[in-house]
Amino acid sequence: MEIEVKIDSAYKEPKVIIITDKITNEVKSLMDKISENKKLTVFSEEEAIIVEADEIIRIYSENKKVYVQTNHSIYSIRMRLYELEEKLILNQFIRISQSELINRNQIVSMDISLTGTIGVLLKNDIKTFASRRYVSKIKKQLGI
What we know:
By secondary structure, this protein is α+β, with helices and mostly antiparallel strands. The chain is built from three helices and ten strands; from the N terminus they run αβββββαβββββα. The protein has helices spanning 25-34, 81-87, 132-142, and strands at residues 39-43, 48-52, 56-62, 65-70, 74-77, 93-97, 100-103, 107-111, 118-122, 126-130. The chain is globular, with a radius of gyration of 18 Å.
């Protein structure tokens, strides 16, 4: 990929132009990274809060509700897991089971020695497991 930067005092705000012969996964990924950060509206018991996608450690469902866990707290959200998976940046979030998405930037380590499953340690000592069904997809996304 070729990158070119031009300084022009006529532009008060940065402008990005991508020139390509076709839309590839690399181009889509670049567009997602450049575009505005995704924000979610989550709920505590008292209030609605806006959370940046980068702040999210994991999103999971439990007892027919969906929760968003950040460094600060666990919030509920009024969206389904599959809707969140579509809305959030695909490169940043990985589906590890039927009921959980994790932020790949929050991964501390992965234990791939377990037979058929992957143990995942996230920031703040949060431990979770990837189901067998998703192991090959996760390995592919992470280049393992």
